[in-house]
Amino acid sequence: xxxxxxxxxxxxxxxxxxxxxxxxxxxxxxxxxxxxxxxxxxxxxxxxxxxxxxxxxx
Length: 58
Hints:
Elements: H1 10-17, H2 28-57
């Protein structure tokens, strides 16, 4: 991995804001997995922001 791609967050942000593909089959397990992944990433980002606030603002 080189330095240019180290902070490339495009694929991660695209995961949150992509549109549904009508050609791809979906089922309950797949939708649940994607929901849990999005929820865990959001919780991580909130926790990270709280830590940054506590370390640098206070």
